[in-house]
Amino acid sequence: MQVYIIGILYIIISVLHNDIVFSQTTPAYTLFEMCSSFQPLGAGARATGRGGAFLSNADDATAASWNPGSLILVKRKYEFSIVKSFIHRFENITFSKNPESSGMNSVNYDDVNFASVTYPFIAMNRNMVISLSYQKLYDFNRQWDLIFKDNSKIYSFNRKIKMAQQGIISSIGLSYCFQLDSKLSTGITINIFDNKLSKNRWEQVSIKDITTKRFDGYNKKTHKIETESFEFKGYNINIGLC
User: Fold this and answer.
1) Which among 238, 40, 45 is positioned nearest to 139, based on CA atoms?
2) Contact 146, 32 (CB under 8 A)
3) Which of 48, 51, 64, 214 has its CA 20 to 30 A from that of 162?
4) Is-contact 226 205, C-beta < 8 A?
């Protein structure tokens, strides 16, 4: 048995420069909610670099993600692929009412972006391919560190807030591709989203330290931690032609 191993190093540098301006009339901390938008991730450096053009001639194992019909172009007897990703995301946040909270916030991390085992074979005088794959589809990682101050002659009210969000949506894919004729093939990928099989979970953590002081000597310090967890479950089907 001859096994071919392909190692793919894929570095994604995601630079998100967001200028976020909050209302002058409403305190910024009452509007803030940690809800990072879906950050979609493509599979493979070649595919991401070529964009939609890769759909018609995806000739490696990442075709299971982009166009399962193109799996027929995989010619190696066995193919094992793994894609590694590194992400650096930073955000420039601006608060018009509370400028003390303005500034840069960033996160850095790396993870497996895509992995698969692909097996081309011949049956009933037709070329066929089966594939088992893992793909990281959406990313939720984000972190903000904020300070809000509200001071007057009779009181001071200071908040230090750290909000972090971490997690991903990923899938386990089962793919099958077969040749219809010498120039046309079709394929199907069933993607399963289940936290028991691969990570489909994200968590939001809010840590608040609040200090209140009044002119009459009243002092109060509050430390509060809030955590919310979410899970996603489902499936989808991709069908492609090549």
Assistant:
1) 40
2) yes
3) 214
4) yes
pTM for the model stands at: 0.69
Domains contained in the chain, number: 1
Answer yes or no: are the C-beta atoms of 209 and 160 closer than 8 Å: yes
Cα angle 175, 178, 180; round to 5? 145
Q: What are phi and psi of 168, to 5 degrees?
A: -145, 165
Structure confidence by residue, pLDDT tens digits, 37-85: 455 555 655 655 555 555 556 666 677 777 888 888 887 778 888 888 7
What domain range includes position 46? Answer: 4-241
> Which residue from 169, 192, 32, 172 is spatially nearest to 111, judged by alpha carbons?
169
For residue 76, the model assigns a pLDDT of: 75
- CA-CA-CA-CA torsion sign (102, 103, 109, 114): positive
Of residues 51 and 125, the one with the higher pLDDT is 125
Going from the C-alpha of 40 to that of each of 26, 30, 136, the distances in angstroms are 32, 29, 9
First to last CA, the chain: 29
For residue 170, what are the CA distances in angstroms to 43, 167, 191, 200?
Answer: 12, 10, 9, 6
